Description:
- This protein is an alpha/beta fold.
- The chain has helices at 44-53, 55-71, 122-156, 192-204, 213-222, 226-242; strands at residues 2-6, 9-18, 25-28, 34-39, 82-85, 88-97, 106-108, 111-117, 162-166, 173-175, 180-184.
- The strands form three sheets. A four-stranded mixed sheet has the order 1-2-4-3. A four-stranded mixed sheet has the order 5-6-8-7, with helices on one face. The chain has a three-stranded mixed sheet with strand order 9-11-10, with helices on one face.
- The longest helix has 35 residues, at 122-156.
- The mean pLDDT is 88.
Amino acid sequence: MEQITYGNKKIKFNIKRGRRKKTVALQIQPNSTVMVLSPYFLDKDKIKEVVLKRARWIIQKQEKIKKLNAEMPKKEFVSGESFPYLGREYRLKVIKSQDEKFCPCKLMAGRFYVEINNKFSGRVASKIVKEKMLEWYIERAKEKITERTQRYFKLIGIIPQKIIIRNQQKRWGSCSHSGVLRFNWKVIMAPISVLDYVIVHELCHLIHQNHSHDFWHKVGSIIPDYKKKREWLKEKSALSAQLLS
């Protein structure tokens, strides 16, 4: 990990080199760490100059993320807490019963319902509720992402080799050179329009394996207001990263 000094603050950052032609991009991760995406040929001193020029912006973003994290208390997975799905918040209702069999989490009539045996309480009960909700989210993510991806690859005219849903700590989605699309299941918490943007973004990488003008032109031809969706993800990524992590 590299670092620079800006005033009385030290900014630490990781460097990821790739096939970028000229530009350097900065990414602030949900945990406030800084990732610098750089061309292979650029030396560390040049990269540090870029980071120093953007130091004020980096610090402002990091402070904003820390503030959001502080405002969002850690979930306890008890009745009354709310959880997002496709951009809407739904309150959780934990039902205690004598039933020993496994009952999956359900979303009905505007509420999450999780039923557990009444012999469980405290942290054990919270862990069980969390596990059931996690299973529900991942299943819904597989269904919804697959459905929306099929819709858009017909529109774009290119089919991915495979779609994988996983827990990605630093990305909402990715596209491999072999045509495999990977999506972070937590994107299912975002509004459907933002989910669509992430899907279109990765599908367009099947055509353009970069972030060139042609790439963004293709994205914009499908999602005209993609900049707003991208900004939403930047603003909300820290909050989403805390949920069910």
